[in-house]
Amino acid sequence: MPAFPGAEGAGSTTPGGRGGRVVWVTNLDDAGPGSLRAACNVKGPRTVVFGTGGYIDLKSDIELTEPFCTIAGQSAPGGGVCVRGAGLVISTHDVVIRHMRFRLGAIDPAKVDRFRDCVHIAGHTPPHDIVLDHCSLSWAVSRNLVTWSGAHDLTVQWCIISQPLRRPENDGRKYGGMGFLIGDDTKNITVHHCLLAHQYRRNPRLKHGVTAHLVNNVVYNWSDGGAMVMGDFAKDPRAAAVEANAINNWFQAGAETPDDAPIVRALTTARIYAAGNVANARWYESDLLAATKTAASASEPFPSRPVTTQPAEEAYRRVLAEAGATRPRRDATDERVVDSVRKSTGRYVGSEQDAGGWPDLDPGTAPLDTDRDGMPDAWETLHGLDPDKPSDTADPDHDGYTNLEEYLNGTDPSRRQGM
Predict the structure, then answer these.
(1) Cβ neighbour number for residue 391 with a 10 Å cutoff
(2) Average pLDDT in the 231-242 region?
(3) Nearest CA-CA partner of 198 in 168, 181, 176
(4) Residue 262 and residue 388: Cα distance in Å, rounded?
(5) Is the pLDDT of residue 235 over 70?
(6) How many CB atoms lie within 10 A of CB 296?
(7) 255 and 399 inside one domain
(8) Cα separation, 29 vs 36, whole angstroms
């Protein structure tokens, strides 16, 4: 069964923290009791819920090493939550992250770590069965999103991945501006209904041994080497044995996109099935590969878990309307990025100030939850549950989703989902 209704693709069947304990984030501290860092490192299946909205200012990356975890950003009150200053490293398996914002920023330019990512999926043992859903990643000093270490069975869906910082070196050259790197030997990754905007490179980049399903994404304002790149041209002497589906994606050039920039650039050993893609209102199917002059076109799509797919034009409208951390609501940063795509405006940024600065995030007030089971009293009462009974997190309709999941998913606990 899906991790939640609407989860699709290679990582979509993970249970995450289903059936485990409820762990509360009650403050915005970097560490200590009640912090997000502490919640991530609780052992055993768990669902992380939030009692406050606002900015979580990190001094170092959070390392998520314990499996079977759901981080429910949609549970936050007010304007939701945003992790900044450092990122999240996922080095385990069976993880679901929804409606979270990860915006690093160069908060102290004198102490910028140029190799820090928003979200980095890698570990000594390959991470697997992971879903990022409706997350917003931006302002990384290195890369917004990275997979590595043979990670497999991953889904990145309905996310906004945008505006990595492109900053000057001491010699005047610039570094950064990197978007989404799908690293060596990442297997079975699905990227669908995502907006990738204002990223100099890697929209995404697929390295050696990757198998990927890229469908219904919107890519805007890329520059160096191509929007999607298959293989490491400069440094990796191995054949880029990439297999990828590129289906019904929308590619829209921006102010930083050179006139001769290819859409897809690939080494000769990459195999790509391309169909239904649109570039600046022109259809690209076999022509999508013509820009590379090297890659082998596959006549049939490579095997992948199904994704509900729309024509590129419809996906464009839906992605701009629905992608990113939208619960409890979109923030001003995502609104600006989406508006720039609609109007074909905007350029790369070197700091969060260039992008409009940090938007206000109302901490809000969490609804009353007497038994601390993650479900507000009012919701439990509405659905005939007991606000004083923590065991109400069970699954009385036997559809596989606990009552806590039904609340977080916005579904009816008395009606079996998918039945």
Answers:
(1) 10
(2) 60
(3) 176
(4) 60
(5) no
(6) 12
(7) no
(8) 8
> Two tokens at 178?
């990197």
User: Could you count the other beta carbons within 10 Å of the beta carbon of residue 163?
Assistant: 30
DSSP state, 358?
P
Provide the 3-class DSSP secondary structure of residue 27.
coil
Residue 316 domain flag: yes
Q: Which residues pair with 217 in a beta bridge?
A: none
Tens of pLDDT, residue by residue over 41-89, are 999 999 999 999 999 999 999 999 999 999 999 999 999 999 999 999 9
- Where do we find the tokens 């170092």? 60
- CA separation for the pair 175, 157 (Å, rounded): 27
Which residues span the domain enclosing 400? 377-409
In sequence order, the 6+-apart residues with CB closer than 8 A to the CB of 287 are none
On whether both 185 and 137 belong to a single domain, the answer is yes
The per-residue pLDDT for 391 is 77
Tokens of 363: 């901490």
| Residue indicated by tokens 């869906």 | 157
The domain tally of the chain equals 2
Q: How far is 45 from 405, CA to CA, in rounded Å?
A: 13
Positive or negative, the CA dihedral 293, 297, 303, 308 is: positive
Instruction: Please state, in angstroms and as integers, the Cα–Cα distance from residue 142 to each residue in 76, 333, 405, following that order.
Output: 28, 19, 34
Query: What are the strands of the beta sheet with 119-121, ordered from one edge?
Result: 62-64, 88-90, 119-121, 143-147, 178-182, 205-206, 228-230, 264-266
